[in-house]
Each structure stands twice: as C-alpha cells, then as structure tokens.
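Is this the right way to post structure tokens for a design question? Let me know if I should format differently. Anyway, here goes:
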C-alpha cells in the first residue's frame, strides 16, 4: 500500500489544490518501510490527482479538499482521508493505528468538507494558499451544533443526535462552502437556518465518475441490485465506493460520485462558541 500526504516542512499541508509537495509512504504488513518527498508537479485538482495516480497511491491524507478534487481522486481509485493536521508522520501513524479515519460517505460537514481551492466556480477568495470566507469569525476556532435536512424534511445528519458539537476553523477549508460562509458572520448563541444549493455544498455530479462495464469484466456484478452500494478495487488494489445505477442483460452502470452531489441541503446551525 502507498500513502501520500500533502506536505510542507514536516506538516500536513492544509489545502490539497495548493500543495507543492507530497510525502509518500510505502506500507507493508501495517508498518512504514520507506518514505519519499516528491514535488507535486503543478497545482489544481486535476493535475494533482493525475500525479498521485501515476505514483500508484492508494490513500491520500490531507487537510481541506474540494469536492471536484474528491471526484477526480475517486475516479483514480484513491481513498481520501481529509481533515488531518499536525505532523505528517504522526498522521500516517494514526491512520495505520485506526485512529485517523474518513467517514462512510454520509454527509457530515466536518468529515466530507469541500475546500475552496480557487478552481471552483463561486470561490469566495483564495490567496497565499489559504482559502478564506469573509466575516468576523474567519480564521477562528468555532464550535457549533447543527442539523442537516433534505428539502422534504428528512434528517441526514445531526450533531444534536450524537450529543457532541462540532469544532472547526472557520474559513480554513474544513467545511462545505455554504456552511462555512454561514458561520462566518454569526454571534455565539445565535441560531440560523440556511438553504444550500449544490454549488455551495457537494457540487454537481461529474459525468466522468459514471462507469459502465460488461458483467464479464466484473464477475459477480450480475447479482447486484440497482441502488446497492459496493466497494471496488482497481488493478493496483486501490478501493473506491460506487453505487449501482442501472443494469441490463449484459452490463452494469456504476456511479462513483459523492451521494450528496447535486442535492440541495438545509442546515440549522447553532454557534456555541468562538475562540
């Protein structure tokens, strides 16, 4: 297995689309056997995803990352572990120990956050490698409770249900863009309701992430049902989740887009504290 970490001066660099280096870790039998620091060779999610695919990376550990970048990496079969910070070596150690994990594709704003990386339409201002939003809370540690619902009222995520508020740095690219922007101007104790279009949440579906295969290429796929979710592995053993969207007598269609792509989302947000 090969792990890549967005890298700068020993630390996990916090913005995938702006990283200038990756530190690569080769892992055998659950332990690191070699490391190598390489140049990213460019900027922007497309070029970086291509670079990691060339290096046959299985896992990417990073700070903030945009949804388009996630989609590009998913298409390349690379699993993303976002929201990491601190020493790169320690982050990899935590991942191998099972401490540093990514969510299971449910919409959890602090784990499936889309970072504004300057390449996405509607970017609210990225400069000097840092993605920011305008507001008095930008750059500050914020603690919130929230409840997320679809337009029909269905609850898809709630910190209230978990009994644990969420902490994040406002404007650091740790949150989906609309959530981040809403908190930027709130006062402690204030509660707001926001409605987010896909462009401010998980983006629109990427046609390139929809794949069609004959059953002969995926033995056992003829037994899958439409809407069933499975994990595939490419020729290098890299895993990525997909959803079955269609079947006919000889082929199956799979979608690697984030399950929230294209959806309008609603959040009730309570700002508990600002530091």
């Amino acid at each position: 297995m090969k792990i890549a970490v967005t890298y700068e001066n020993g630390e996990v660099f916090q913005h995938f689309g702006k990283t200038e280096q990756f530190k690569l870790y080769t892992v055998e039998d659950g332990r690191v056997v070699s490391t190598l620091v390489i140049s990213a060779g460019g900027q922007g999610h497309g070029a970086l995803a291509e670079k990691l695919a060339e290096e046959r990376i299985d896992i990417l550990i990073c700070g903030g990352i945009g949804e388009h970048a996630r989609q590009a990496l998913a298409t390349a079969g690379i699993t993303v572990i976002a929201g990491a910070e601190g020493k790169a070596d320690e982050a990899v150690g935590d991942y191998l120990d099972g401490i540093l994990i990514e969510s299971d594709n449910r919409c959890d704003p602090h784990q499936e956050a889309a970072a504004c990386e300057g390449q996405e339409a509607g970017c609210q201002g990225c400069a000097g490698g840092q993605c920011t939003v305008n507001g008095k809370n930008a750059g500050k540690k914020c603690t919130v409770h929230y409840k997320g619902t679809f337009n029909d009222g269905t609850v898809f995520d709630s910190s209230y249900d978990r009994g644990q508020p969420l902490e994040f740095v406002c404007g650091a690219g740790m949150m989906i863009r609309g959530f981040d922007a809403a908190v930027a101007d709130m006062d402690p104790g204030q509660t707001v309701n926001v409605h987010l279009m896909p462009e401010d949440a998980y983006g629109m579906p990427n046609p390139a992430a929809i794949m069609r295969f004959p059953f002969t290429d995926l033995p056992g796929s003829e037994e899958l049902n439409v809407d069933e979710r499975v994990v595939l592995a490419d020729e290098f053993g890299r895993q990525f989740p997909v959803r079955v969207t269609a079947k006919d007598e000889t082929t199956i269609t799979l979608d690697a887009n984030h399950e929230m792509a294209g959806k309008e989302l609603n959040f009730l947000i309570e700002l508990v504290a600002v530091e």
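Format looks fine. Someone answered above. Worth noting: The chain has three domains: 2-96, 126-203+261-274, 207-255. Residues 2-96 form a domain with the Nucleotidyltransferase; domain 5 fold (CATH 3.30.420.130).
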